[in-house]
Amino acid sequence: MDDAIECDIICLVTLEAGKRLGPYEIVSPIGAGGMGEVYKAHDTRLDRTVAIKVLPEELSDNPELRERFEREARAISSLNHPHICTLYDVGCEDGVDFLVMEYLEGETLAERLQRGALPLDEALRYAIQIADALDNAHRHGVVHRDLKPGNIMLTEAGAILLDFGLASLRKGYGGQASLSSVSTRAKPLTEKGAILGTFQYMAPEQLEGLEADARTDVFTFGAVVYEMLTGKRAFEGESQASLIAAILEREPTPLSSLQPMTPPALERTVSKALAKEPDRRWQDVGDFGSELQWISEGGGLAVVPEPSHSRHVLPLAIAAIFGALVSGLAIGP
After folding, report:
1. pLDDT class for 66, splitting at 50, 70, 90?
2. β-bridge partners, 51
3. Quick one: which of 21, 134, 147, 238 is 20 to 30 A from 127 by CA?
4. Beta strands in the chain (DSSP E)
5. What are the residues whose beta carbons fall under 8 Å from the beta carbon of 12, sequence distance 6 or more?
6. Which of the pair, 306 or 197, is modelled with greater confidence?
């Protein structure tokens, strides 16, 4: 299986090699999950390799899954960023709805983390790229809501953000992509109180069933950055209940306890992203990214200035000692 797009994999192969979806010829399966199956395919018109995400016919009767599938198409089609997977096409063939996306070679961040923490400079580089991608999405009214290492691809071009299947779009935003034969639902995709996402990376407000906004992505992104830096998840539990309690009530182990060489500024920056209350976090992922950029350029190693009231203490003390010495010399034999 190719190291390409990941979907929390349990393979459910329904399309065989050689099967055609319009001009796209299936080459091999990549992975599958609750939101569909992903295949490596060949675009016979443009002679290029693509990734195709399909909603199998047996899942298409589920109106919520169909709506999420179309929502992903709308979300991605509204975005154009070097660190967000590009949507090329949408379509329906023989009852199979599909999205055609950029094919990415590399490994997911989840796969990379199986080998431990990333070096500081590498973690910061990827984090800055992801922050820029999220900032672009937020500016276009898209909140990802399911950011996790499995939804980030590491390629030669850097980190690429994937899987907008749980994304929310603010009114007045959204692309024009539309899947054929998809009916419009009268009620919203997610009912009030519904919990969507991956528990280990959920923000407290998500676990409480409250509405997610851009600050929710800031929290989950903070958890991803924490894991890149330490190789450990920010919140862990032996059961789902204990994990939820950890996210709602406990603070992560300090970065410096796990990585003693962590710059103090980086620890403060990540801790702010992981604040329980949304109002206490970075309010804009762009600001979070700017701080990470400043740290990567050496700002995190800068000495914090002393408070202004203490700045004159040392010179005065030196002056007093010097004065005493002079006086001693003057009255000595």
Report:
1. confident
2. 40, 101
3. 238
4. 20-21, 24-33, 36-43, 48-55, 87-93, 96-102, 107-108, 142-143, 152-155, 158-161, 168-169
5. 32, 37, 56
6. 197
Calculate the average pLDDT of the chain.
Answer: 81
Token pair for 125: 């580089």
C-alpha span between 214 and 5 (Å, rounded): 24
Question: Exactly one of 89, 132, 146, 163 is catalytic; which is it?
Answer: 146
- Rounded to whole angstroms, how far apart are CA atoms 64 and 54? 15
User: Please, are residues 190 and 85 in contact by the beta-carbon 8 Å criterion?
Assistant: no
Q: Which domains does the chain have, with CATH numbers?
A: 19-102 (3.30.200.20), 106-174+193-297 (1.10.510.10)
Distance from the Cα of residue 114 to its chain's centroid: 17
Maximal CA-CA distance, the chain = 110
From the list 155, 150, 171, 24, the residue with the least C-alpha distance to 92 is 24
Contact indicator for 143, 137 with CB cutoff of 8 Å: yes
CB atoms within 10 A of CB 97: 26
Number of CB atoms found within 10 A of residue 190's CB: 18
In the predicted structure, residue 155 carries a pLDDT above the cut 90: yes
Is the CB of residue 230 less than 8 Å from the CB of residue 261? no
pLDDT at 174 over 80: no
Annotated active-site residue 217? The verdict is no
Phi, psi of 107 (to 5 degrees): -145, 155
